[in-house]
Specification:
The chain has 257 residues and is of the alpha+beta class. Helices cover 40% and strands 19% of the residues.
């Protein structure tokens, strides 16, 4: 008789104890492609070039010595940590090759790190008051993940504020819906306000958005077909308050809290 009992016996005879392992085997999902280290080297060099170009036009420039130190710490050292801790080969996202997922994550990480000094000027606080709270851990794959949690927590006049940092490189400036929902949850459950600072590096401008104030019926909610039909909040032009080539505004001038 051909039934579910036979199916299980057949799979056991093949040497598999569960259905998922059979699917992985036949689909070669358990076979990891070798990392193209030459490609990674080229991507790291492009990250360095991106930082240098941004630095060449930024109001707060790093000196040539400082920029070399920055790129070494935030690109080469971080890459080595990801490789040493076994995270690099397991980076994947809906079939994209590991190297491209790595570059996408690193690009956002490097940009956020570069503008930390500018953030301290904007918020008129010392860098020590800017606390990293995101879930990306360079040592543990289980905590190296993308979640809605904000990247930073900043204390201003004894009030803690969540700050999400993101970068745009193609001219499309959107906020994913789950980030807005998380901001609303944090406000309701923890009484913490959330803002997003969006660096549009394609156009050289920066937007400041109060995340937990975005209404569900706002006309700027759209569907991005190129993002697999995701619902996103499109950041319209009036949110952009800072030209990257000029001195950044002070936060209290923005009046978004």
């Amino acid at each position: 008789m051909i039934d579910s009992k036979y199916f299980k016996e057949y799979r056991n005879a093949l040497g598999f104890t569960n259905q998922s392992s059979v699917k992985k085997f036949f689909g070669a999902k358990d076979v990891l492609a070798n990392i193209d280290l030459t490609y990674i080297k080229d991507l790291n060099y492009r990250l360095k070039e991106i930082v240098e170009k941004i630095n060449s036009v930024s109001y707060y420039k790093l000196s040539p010595t400082k920029i070399e130190e920055f790129t070494n710490i935030n690109i080469q050292v971080v890459f080595q940590k990801l490789a040493d801790n076994g995270i690099l080969p397991k980076l994947n996202n809906q079939g994209r090759r590991t190297e491209d997922v790595y570059f996408s994550w690193m690009r956002g990480f490097v940009v956020s790190s570069y503008f930390t000094h500018s953030l301290s000027q904007i918020f008129m606080i010392k860098s020590s008051f800017i606390q990293m709270i995101g879930d990306d851990d360079l040592k543990d794959l289980n905590t190296f993940k993308r979640t809605p949690k904000a990247d930073l927590e900043i204390t201003i006049d004894n009030e803690k504020i969540r700050v999400e940092i993101q970068s745009g490189f193609q001219g499309n400036n959107d906020i994913k819906q789950h980030k807005v929902l998380e901001a609303k949850r944090v406000l309701q459950e923890e009484d913490l306000k959330s803002i997003l600072i969006h660096f549009d590096l394609f156009n050289g401008q920066v937007a400041f958005v109060r995340l937990d104030n975005i209404q569900s019926d706002d006309i700027n909610w759209i569907t991005r077909q190129q993002m697999e039909g995701q619902t996103v909040f499109n950041i319209e032009q009036n949110y952009f308050k800072w030209k990257l080539i000029e001195k950044p505004p002070f936060f209290d001038e923005l009046e978004i809290l």
